[in-house]
């Protein structure tokens, strides 16, 4: 009897395992949509579309990218938060997803409940650049100028709550300065005004300003990550320039509707892992100055949770400035 029970148990387990494999083998059975809270042509959009192409080849199904910019990324987040938890609607999200928890406390779709992490993609530092006419050559001089008077220096912010904005607020917190954030809707507009002398500084994504830096049109003072940027090896970090612990980077990852079956999450995460190893994806990341992430799903979940907590301090600072 005991051996017969063991045989039946083993058979039942095998059938259950087989049924799960069949179900997973059928995913995806139709096209997958990746929603992106940014406009077309930016670094996150380029990476998302490259990833979508790689996933299409891996899955044998179309993976399309749908840009839904606006409301600091909340429009895209809401689309995924309202979707079925079946893996057919994904979100490519970045720093604003964590920031918005504090920036819009009444927004109903929360990370860890309605939106969950699937896979990290990568991170990139920004670089603090200034117009040469300021005659500022290092971060110490910049900090002194920024502290000289309230709103004494202005900096471009590509949307309130963006990395370019939060980098400035985080610097103000450590430097004791009060810079003026000037909001722009796109990088081209911000770059034009910076080159034209209408704004003093910008915490910019590195690839977009490498040309003007090398041409002497902009002065690079410091990068915002924990280590020097490979593309700007002679430019020190903010941390090594007298502000220890400063670390503000743009990070990008894939998210999904909460409540999805763990097996489906595994399938998507593994497919993204394979896509990240492709030459096309690696090249796209390198061109945007994004370092591929090595975090697994649990580590990425913990990382975003930490980013949500960190953002509360920064958001509280600039909300206090508004009042």
SSE layout and pairing:
Layout: H1 2-25, E1 32-36, H2 43-59, E2 63-67, H3 74-82, E3 89-94, H4 95-103, E4 115-130, H5 139-148, E5 154-157, H6 163-175, E6 180-183, H7 187-195, E7 201-205, H8 210-214, E8 219-223, E9 249-257, H9 262-276, H10 279-287, E10 291-292, H11 297-322
Parallel strand pairs: 1-2, 1-3, 5-6, 5-7
Antiparallel strand pairs: 3-9, 4-7, 4-8, 4-9, 4-10
Helix pairs in contact: 2-9, 2-10, 4-11, 6-11
Structure description:
It is a single chain. The protein has two domains: 31-123 and 249-317, Bordetella uptake gene, domain 1 (D-Maltodextrin-Binding Protein, domain 2), CATH 3.40.190; 125-248, D-Maltodextrin-Binding Protein, domain 2, CATH 3.40.190. Helix content is 45%, strand content 19%. It contains eleven helices and ten strands. Strand 5 (154-157), helix 6 (163-175) and strand 6 form a beta-alpha-beta unit. Helix 2 crosses helix 9 (262-276), helix 4 (95-103) packs across helix 11 and helix 6 (163-175) crosses helix 11. The longest helix is centred in the C-terminal third of the chain and has 26 residues, at 297-322. Residues 1-24 have low confidence and may be disordered.
Structural class: alpha/beta
Measured distance between first and last alpha carbons: 77 Å
Q: Mean of the pLDDT scores?
A: 89
Radius of gyration: 22 Å
Could you state the CATH homologous superfamily of the largest domain? Bordetella uptake gene, domain 1
CATH class of the largest domain: Alpha Beta
Number of domains: 2
* Annotated CATH topology of the largest domain: D-Maltodextrin-Binding Protein, domain 2
CATH-scheme architecture of the largest domain: 3-Layer(aba) Sandwich
Give, in order, the helices and strands: HEHEHEHEHEHEHEHEEHHEH
- Dominant shape: globular
Count of distinct strands:
10
- Helical content, roughly? 40-55%
Point out poorly predicted stretches.
1-24
Q: What fraction strand?
A: 15-25%
Number of H/I helices: 11
Largest sheet: 10 strands, mixed
């Amino acid at each position: 009897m005991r051996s017969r029970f063991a045989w039946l148990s083993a058979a039942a387990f095998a059938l259950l395992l087989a049924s799960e494999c069949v179900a997973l083998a059928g995913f995806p059975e139709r096209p997958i949509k990746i929603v992106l809270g940014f406009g077309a042509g930016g670094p996150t959009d380029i990476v998302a579309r490259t990833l979508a192409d790689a996933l299409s080849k891996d899955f044998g199904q179309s993976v399309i990218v749908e840009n839904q910019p606006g409301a600091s990324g909340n429009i895209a987040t809401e689309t995924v938060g309202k979707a079925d938890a079946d893996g057919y609607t994904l979100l490519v999200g970045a720093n604003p997803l964590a920031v918005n928890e504090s920036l819009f406390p009444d927004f109903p779709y929360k990370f860890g409940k309605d939106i969950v992490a699937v896979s990290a993609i990568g991170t990139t530092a920004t670089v603090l650049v200034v117009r040469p006419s300021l005659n500022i050559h290092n971060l110490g001089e910049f900090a002194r100028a920024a502290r000289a008077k309230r709103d004494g220096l202005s900096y471009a912010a590509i949307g309130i709550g963006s990395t370019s904005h939060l980098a400035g607020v985080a610097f103000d917190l450590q430097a004791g300065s009060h810079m003026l954030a000037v909001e722009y809707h796109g990088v081209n507009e911000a770059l034009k005004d910076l080159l034209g002398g209408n704004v003093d500084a910008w915490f910019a994504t590195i690839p977009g300003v490498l040309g003007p830096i090398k041409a002497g049109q902009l002065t690079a003072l410091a990068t915002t990550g924990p280590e020097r940027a490979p593309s700007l090896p002679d430019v020190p970090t903010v941390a090594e320039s007298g502000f220890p612990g400063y670390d503000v980077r743009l990070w990008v990852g894939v998210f999904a509707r909460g409540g999805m079956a763990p097996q489906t999450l595994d399938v998507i995460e593994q497919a993204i892992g394979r896509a990240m190893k492709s030459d096309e994806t690696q090249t796209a990341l390198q061109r945007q100055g994004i370092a591929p992430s090595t975090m697994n799903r649990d580590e990425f979940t913990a990382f975003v949770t930490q980013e949500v907590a960190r953002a509360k301090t920064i958001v509280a600072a600039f909300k206090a400035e508004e009042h």
